[in-house]
Structure prediction request, 731 residues.
Amino acid sequence: MKRLLLALLLLLASGLPLLAQSATTLSGTVRDASGGALPGVNVFLRGTFDGASTDSVGAFRFETRQTGAAVLVLSLLGYQPQELPVALNGQPVRLALKMKGTPHALGSVVVTAGAFEASDEHRSAALNTRDVQTTAGALSDVAAALNTLPGTTKVGEEGQLFVRGGAANETKVYLDGLLVQNFYAGSVPAVPARGRFAPTLFRGTVFSTGGYSALYGQALSGVLQLNSTDLAAETQTGVSVSSVFVGASRTKRWERTSLDFSGDYTNLTPYMGLLPQNVDWVQAPRGSSGSVKLSHRTGQAGMLKAYGTWSGQRFVIGQPSPEPAGRQQIALQNHNAYLNTTFRSPLRHGWSIQIGVALSRDDKDLQPDTLRLRTLEQAVVGRVVLTNDSVGTRWNLKLGLEGVGQRVTQTYQPHATAALSYQTSFTEQRTAAFVETDFQLTDRLAGRVGGRAEYSALLGLANAAPRLALAYQTTEHSSVSGAYGRFYQTPDNTLLLVQPRLRFEQAQHAVLTYQYNHNGRLLQTEAYHKTYAHLTRFDGRNPRNPADYNNDGTGYARGLDVLWRDRKTVKYLEYWVSYGLLDTRRQYRQDPVSAVPTFAAKHNVSVVGKYWVPKLTTLFGATWSYGSSRRYHDPNQDGYNQGVLPTYQDLSLNASYLTRLFGQFTVVHVSASNVLGRPNVFGYRYATTPDAATGQYRRVAITPTAPRMLFVGVFISINKKSPGDVNERPE
Prediction:
């Protein structure tokens, strides 16, 4: 006992000098050879637990109670580790450090297969926020702008993203790493839907059309990753007046905090009263929305963000019908609320953490003629990701967990005047775990390997999805990369409401990419092959009979995507050309046989150009889109999906004039779609029974709701500190 007390006293005595010594603060920056900031560098004292990671501007700061001579260690994937002596005597130590990249470091060999990256300088920048705002025909809609990239098919009656032969629900959207349950605003058949989020919310987008990371799941075809801005740049006020809406916003910036408010009111009644329409708007679309965003920097590299938005809309539309009545009326009311909260911070020894929680509630009331169909979806999504970018000089590590709780209820009332109604619902609790690492095998060969496992309490099933990607640097400015992966997705809510005991739907992707990126010019070509298994099928004649549901559906999609983008050849001109070749067939949902899906076009072409005229302080834009014939099912002919639609073509123009109004920086934006008046047809509706006289099923064409869309808007930015320069091209 005496020996134990003596040892304890010696231990305490040895620690007294350390406790008595005041802490030493080490801070500084780490940059690469060209002076660029290096985030994620692990900076620590050898043999201790004292250290920190550099933040987004390459800065670090930590305290230690160690004294005397010590060794400071720097490590980061793709860079040569460094050690340097430091003296710890209680006085602050300020350092300006540089790291040298390893020959042909991983940072120059980037795995690009399956992804068109945006706003990431190390990757193939394709679209950013300004691109979304200024692409003619997109009208600031994220999905519409992305539909000008290869791998997509423009399906005019839906307005959503259809990727490489996949249906719209096979591409999922993640906001700051959290799955968004209802990305698109509510709509009805043949009326295209828009995304709910404004492009100004994002600092970058990553659009992956296949072979994507194990960090993302529940998408058979593609993933759209939206990364929101951190702190707002500065305090300012915005006022918007346009032909369809009015809005206002206010941004307040403090040193470590920024707060944004925005709100708008939309009413298309005056607009639709002036311009001709192809449908009868009994009540034109109207609604309102608002949002609040709080960003707060916690410490050197920590960031807390909370974003909330709510919206409500309604309209009543009368559409041509092939039934004897000749017209069908559909009313829609939709209310949506969404809250996304995330926090990220560096930890010790190169680790960093990102956690987030998202809540959503979507209430959609659809009233086709005398029917009533109300769907209420409530969901909570949670996620935690641990990342170490400097666990080794040639590899990093990412670990994560994800959970989704979801409750969907649908009430069906066959006739509005009768009290009889039916209600179905389901509750889902889905969990996922994932691990992934980026690594460098040789000077020119890098890769990424990972895996994702999911469990669905509703289905009572689990799955495991491996992902692998390799990239080889062929020249200083070009690379070849390939990706393979298995992907799972739970069936649609509409299917689960009828039959919840289904299987995960499955797809496998194999992607091969060549990329050249130099001096403002980008060429990317990508060949892909995708197979489907366990797709949900049912009897189209009795879709509400759960006994007719199974997971026997299969299919495939293969093709070639090409993107060329040029910002340098002609001064003030930037443009891109995209082409997609698609060969696909599948048997799913009510398909009696394998067939080309009605949403797939074999050839898709987009040409987007933007030209800045300094003398006019105006940016002019044009977008031409082409889609080859899509299939449709004609019950008056033998076979299935044997009908062929006319090709789709659209030429849209816009112009953004920069000026000052009331002394404030102002943008006057004018946009027109389908300026050539092309009579596009998206499909046909057929009568449920054949005509008694002819024996043929009558039909009506599904066309755009209007021959063309004309938009005029004035956007005023009130900013005393940075009033804006009308002579500079908007960036």
